[in-house]
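Q: How do we represent a protein-ligand complex in a form that can be generated token by token?
A: Start from the inputs.
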Amino acid sequence: MTLGPLILVSGPSGSGKSTLIRRVLEQPPFPLRLAVSATTRPARPGEVDGQQYHFWSLERFQRELAAGAFLEYAQVHQQHYYGTPRSEVDPFLQQGQGVILDIDVQGAAQVRKIYPQHLSIFVALSRWEMYEQRLRQRATETPDSIARRLQTARLELERQGEYDHVVLNDNLEQAVIQFREILTKYHSDRC
Ligand code: 5GP
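Then emit the structure tokens for the protein with guanosine-5'-monophosphate bound:
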């Protein structure tokens, strides 16, 4: 049986990629689920363990890593660890279902080697100032966290050429349409 489609989505903090993914998943063009990553970052207010992330201690994360439970992992913003548990991906792909990964550029590079057949999308904004504006509006980040995220954003933007498509998310509604069109075309080309 052919594996289901694997979709990698990266983009700097503030690009609105999580909201965009959520909107696309409200009406996906084919059966598609978002993999729930594990992270050592503390939960933000309103985040629930097992929904946005599996919030694991560093000890648990290291134990799972040693046991080979991760498809990939990375230290993001030079701070916390994030990883994709294999159990969130492999069983679904094997059933022919689509899986979408919200993943940083380092993790995406690792997964590309493991699954050469994938679709990758980079979400960006057209102007640099917009990242900082959006991060400030979020009001969940400390000034230190905003600074770290902007530093990572510069490095991530340099690697957008590694992706099959770049979706500009200045306007969410337009970005949702463009993202869906890319998925639809990819799916019909595979069939
Ligand atoms: P946040 O802390 O804002 O939720 O996420 C920070 C960054 O970590 C985002 O760029 C997100 O794409 C990335 N990320 C989330 N889950 C994973 C994962 O499982 N693996 C990797 N490598 N990056 C992830």
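The radius of gyration is 16 Å. The longest helix spans residues 172-190.
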